[in-house]
Design brief:
Blueprint (H helix, E strand, L loop, with lengths): L2 H8 L3 H12 L3 H19 L7 H7 L5 H12 L3 H23 L1
Length: 105
């Protein structure tokens, strides 16, 4: 979604939209939308493993073309690199599999 589409939908100027976002959320609409996409990516990385999806694929599916910039935004928001999230999900799923095997074995 682009800012111009939001402005058209609500029949407001870019400046009015920007001011409303700052008044309500303390950040601008571009930053809000970026964070929303980053949170969706964070969830996707936690739900996948390196064998199923790549970070680049997931990032591009959510509109990030410049992967270096994406990685910077991601680390600033979550305090870890996307690869750390993806590999942590693999360790967690392995731990769950082990616990299931112990419970049924």
């Amino acid at each position: 979604m682009h800012i111009s589409e939001i402005c058209a939908q609500f029949n407001v100027s870019r400046r009015s939209l920007h001011r409303a976002f700052y008044d309500m959320l303390g950040l601008g609409p571009v930053t809000f939308l970026r964070r929303k996409r980053l949170c969706a990516i964070h969830s996707a990385l936690r739900d996948n493993t390196p064998a199923i999806a790549t970070i680049g694929e997931i990032a591009m599916q959510h509109g990030f073309i410049e992967l270096g910039r994406f990685s910077h935004y991601y680390r600033s928001l979550f305090g870890e690199y996307p690869s750390e999230t993806l590999h942590a999900s693999k360790r967690i799923s392995r731990g769950i599999d082990r616990r299931r095997a112990l419970a049924t074995g």
